[in-house]
Design goal:
The chain has one domain: Periplasmic binding protein-like II (D-Maltodextrin-Binding Protein, domain 2, 3-Layer(aba) Sandwich), CATH 3.40.190. It is globular and about 40 Å long. Helices cover 41% and strands 19% of the residues. The chain is built from 5 helices and 5 strands. It has a 5-stranded mixed beta sheet, sandwiched between helices. With 145 residues, it is an alpha/beta fold.
């Protein structure tokens, strides 16, 4: 009975957190030292689908993503591409099989995302806008409402 209760709490917590970012704006971030100051939504979509291999400054972008079925990751792809995670995973399976591109590098938490973006001027990542602070060593490139 105790195991059943733990399982039910885990399921409800997962369901509740899966929708927790659907109404939250997502901040696309780069290092404060990055030369990027703006990017179109189409360019961002191309970067996160492996279609952009160089930035306007001729450097290769490093898009960062969250590992697994993270709720923020699900909200990001829904807002940016209008696709759910199973569609994104299917897309990447096909693209990787044909050798056309590799998926974004995965990080585990928003703190790791922030630190990874801060440490690399070509990295592009995303966090919940509500988690952004001007004290961070990153700047917002765009907001996905």
């Amino acid at each position: 009975m105790k195991n059943l209760m733990i399982l039910l709490v885990t399921i409800f917590t997962t369901i509740a957190s899966a929708g927790s970012y659907s109404d939250t704006a997502i901040a696309v971030i780069v290092s404060k030292n990055s030369e990027l100051s703006a990017m179109s939504r189409n360019d961002l979509a191309d970067m996160y689908t492996g279609k952009t291999l160089v930035l306007p400054d001729s450097k290769a972008p490093i898009p960062l993503d969250y590992r697994g079925n993270d709720a923020l990751k699900a909200a990001f792809y829904k807002k940016l591409l209008g696709k759910n995670l199973s569609q994104i995973n299917e897309y990447w399976a096909t693209v990787m099989f044909t050798g056309q591109a590799t998926p974004p590098q995965a990080v585990v938490t928003p703190i790791v995302m922030e630190n990874s973006v801060d440490g690399n001027v070509t990295a592009v990542g995303y966090i919940s806008e509500k988690d952004y602070s001007p004290k961070m060593n990153v700047k917002i490139l765009m907001i996905l409402p």
